[in-house]
Write a structure and sequence with these properties.
Elements lengths: L1 E6 L3 H12 L5 E4 L26 H13 L4 E3 L3 E6 L5 E5 L4 E9 L3 E3 L15 E2 L2 H4 L7 E5 L3 H11 L4 E5 L9 H8 L4 E4 L2 E9 L2 E9 L4 E4 L3 E4 L3 E3 L34 E3 L11 H22 L1
Parallel strand pairs: 1-2, 1-6, 2-3, 6-17, 8-15, 9-10, 9-15, 10-11
Antiparallel strand pairs: 4-5, 5-6, 7-16, 12-13, 13-14
Helix pairs in contact: 1-2, 1-6, 4-5
Enzyme class: oxidoreductase
Keywords: Disulfide bond, FAD, Flavoprotein, NADP, Oxidoreductase, Redox-active center
GO molecular function: thioredoxin-disulfide reductase (NADPH) activity
């Protein structure tokens, strides 16, 4: 039987594996079918991780994490876990995509969340080359330049305000007249001279060249269009939480989740189900930053170690 199963190979999962194995836990297995490192491996430039002063791409940044996490005995199973369930004896059964099952005493879920794509033309082509879903990650690259923000919720408006402190101008593009964002947040944006509201409009196309994005074309309800010259486009149209792993055969969660589908945890990363922990972007109120995910993973590992000791 596996002592500790970690589902997901991003920063949270790797940090959890490192802390658990270095802490003396034997037979720790990380389940990840793809390349280890998580979403951050797709980033072209990283410069805001504390202690890492060299500008580097996401893949280069995560490579030492992978090597270090495996140093103390962490094992990887190259498969995707489809479902986790708790047995009557307190252990967990993990079902993978091929139908194979694994038994584990404790489980840390680090499956994360995926920014929802807006679906406009050019989004996939220029993602990472001018199209972004992370203002704190990529905003600095557009210092004193004009950029566009797409969305009408709290995140979109809050990030537009955040970006306005870095860039020269923000075009806030929303398909409706009204916003879902909190009134106080919206009022701050309206009073910000750097933010121009482009309403009743949707992105028709993001276009550019070999260097990246050069502009966007928006289409209004009356079918008229407008060209906006910007090198950067930030989309905030929601998240697709990867929480299927904690849902049973009837699509019901085995632990507490929020309305948006994120896993509820306490400060120890404990879920409502004993022996089940969550870390990183999958957990409620996650900041969606690598440094935070790593801290979550370490915390979850330490909590899992205490849980395993209690079983003895």
């Amino acid at each position: 039987m596996i002592n500790l199963a970690i589902i997901g190979g991003g920063p949270a999962g790797l940090a959890a594996g490192l802390y658990a194995t270095r802490g003396g836990v034997k037979n720790v297995v990380l389940f990840e079918s793809g390349i280890l490192g998580g979403q951050i491996t797709g980033s072209s430039e990283i410069e805001n991780y504390p202690g890492v002063a060299t500008l580097m791409d996401g893949n280069s940044f995560m490579q030492p994490w992978i090597e270090q996490s495996m140093r103390f005995g962490l094992k990887q199973e190259r498969t995707s876990i489809k479902r986790v369930s708790k047995n009557e004896d307190g252990a967990f059964t993990l079902l993978d995509e091929s139908g194979k099952t694994y038994l584990a005493k404790a489980v840390i879920v680090c499956t994360g969340s995926k920014p929802r794509r807006a679906g406009f033309k050019g989004e996939d082509e220029f993602f990472g080359r001018g199209v972004s879903t992370c203002a704190t990650c990529d905003g600095f690259f557009y210092k004193n330049k004009e950029i566009a923000v797409i969305g009408g919720g709290d995140t979109a408006v809050e990030e537009a305000i955040y970006l306005s402190h870095i860039v020269s101008k923000v075009y806030l593009i929303h398909r409706r007249e009204g916003f879902r964002a909190a009134p106080t947040t919206l009022e701050k944006a309206k009073n910000n001279p750097k933010i121009e509201f482009v309403l009743n409009a949707k992105i028709d196309e993001v276009y550019g060249d070999k260097m990246g994005v050069t502009g966007v074309r928006v289409k209004f309800k009356d079918n008229s269009t407008r060209e906006i010259d910007v090198p950067g486009v930030f989309t905030f149209v929601g998240l697709d939480v990867r929480n299927n792993v904690i849902k049973d055969e009837n699509d019901k969660p085995i632990c507490g989740i929020t309305e948006s589908g994120q896993i509820g945890v306490n400060l120890k990363m404990e879920t409502s189900l004993k022996g089940l922990f969550a870390a990183g972007d999958i957990r409620a109120d996650a900041p969606k930053q690598v440094v935070s995910a790593a801290g979550d993973g370490a915390t979850a590992a330490l909590s899992a170690m205490s849980y395993l000791e209690s079983l003895e």
